[in-house]
Design a protein that fits this description.
The protein is mainly alpha-helical and 158 residues long. The protein folds into two domains: 53 residues, no CATH class; 79 residues, Rossmann fold (3-Layer(aba) Sandwich). Helix content is 51%, strand content 8%. The protein is built from nine helices and two strands; from the N terminus they run H-H-H-H-H-H-E-H-E-H-H. Helix 7 links the parallel strand 1 and strand 2. Helix 2 packs antiparallel against helix 4. The longest helix is centred in the last third of the chain and has 16 residues. It is elongated and about 70 Å long.
Length: 158
């Protein structure tokens, strides 16, 4: 489409996609700026990027083992109306011991544009927690698929 019709049809399609309409509803000026910036992209460059990078890149699910091994403090932020991102965001949270997940309500893909104050505050709080040593890996006792183990004094004796 980009090679034949140029960038304009992509701008029209992309800016009204299910994960971008929230920005239009919350901040029409920022949405128009997003459209303008997208419209300034090279149609040829965008086509080459989509064809030779985005279409060929592996899924994040393919990197599960590497993500599980990553011990870097991480905050995953997603909008609850960004359906394509929610599943992988939750998976990353589950896989990475040092990851936290923040889901912003009534928000699409452009989290930082739709909710800039909340996003910036979240980033400040996250970075501050990391600097103070307060962003710690998940307690192994809280891992998914782990059954609860009662302390000896609470165990039922048979």
């Amino acid at each position: 489409m980009l090679d034949k019709a140029g960038i304009k049809p992509l701008v029209e399609t992309f800016s009204y996609s299910p994960t971008r309409i929230q920005l239009l509803n919350k901040d029409p000026r920022s949405w128009e700026e997003f459209r303008r910036h997208l419209g300034e992209h090279s149609a040829r460059g965008s086509a080459l990027t989509m064809r030779n990078y985005q279409a060929l890149r592996p899924s994040l699910y393919d990197f599960e083992a590497q993500i599980r091994a990553c011990e870097v403090p991480t905050l995953v932020v997603a909008g609850d109306e960004d359906d394509p991102v929610l599943d992988i965001a939750l998976s990353i949270k589950r896989w990475m011991p040092g990851a936290g997940l923040q889901v912003l309500p009534k928000t699409g893909h452009a989290v930082n544009l739709e909710e800039p104050e909340l996003f910036n505050r979240s980033m400040r709080d996250f970075l501050s927690a990391v600097e103070r040593g307060r962003w710690v890996p998940r307690d192994p006792r809280a891992q998914p698929n782990r059954s609860a183990v009662l302390p000896d004094e609470l165990s039922v004796k048979s």
